[in-house]
Target: Carbohydrate deacetylase
Amino acid sequence: SWFFSFLFWVCSQVELELRAQVRRFIELTGHLPHHMDGHQHVHVLPDVREVFAQVLSDVRIPFTRVPMEPGLHSCPWVPAHLHTFYMEVEKDALDSIPVFKHHGIRSNLRILNIPEDNQDPTTFISKLLKDAMGDDIFPSPPELERAHRTAEPKPTAGHPPRPFILAFHRYQEKEVALRWSRQHEVNHQGTTLRISPDLSIALAKKRSTFNDVKEALCQRGVSFRLLLVVLKLHLREKST
Model:
């Protein structure tokens, strides 16, 4: 039909524009961009996200931004029309996560339990990671693209601090930090920090449905891993 023909044409133009922008960036800077996203969050729109993910995968750009701010939809000061817009963006963002993961595109890390303060967040988190993990992991503070608190209101005394969201400049350093944190406790001023991929609330809930199964497998010494929300078992050197 004319609609699908038009949609195919639009997606092909999006792909051409994305590839042209990447080429232009390389011409101006001499290297690939570290990450890409879309103005007004267009990169998570239906159909566009598939093209966007394929282009990033083809040119080996490993990171994008998933426009999710946990708690923002419950903020009373957000006007109604902006709240509606945010909920639409959030739905598109949630739907885009499996597409991005399928193409090997990654987003941010999340750190819990860091006390609230007024320090520069990017410098503070970079130094914290070096101090907590040691010189063998980070001889110098890792370079971060950004680090910031989530959008909830600042908690009052006695309540948990807001999570930190951070993006590493180098994918390898991100993976090293994540792997190290799974094998060791990350401590800061006597507090144990939790570092994890910044999954959406919906995706984290889906993964949590496997918790009982994972515990039972661990008790029986069965090796496994989660691929998005699929449980993969390793039995007698064969995968099922």
Notes: Strands lie at 35-36, 63-64, 109-112, 144-149, 164-168, 186-188, 191-197, 223-227, 230-235, 238-239. Residues 2-102 form one domain. The two ends are 41 Å apart (CA to CA). The first strand starts at residue 35 and ends at 36.
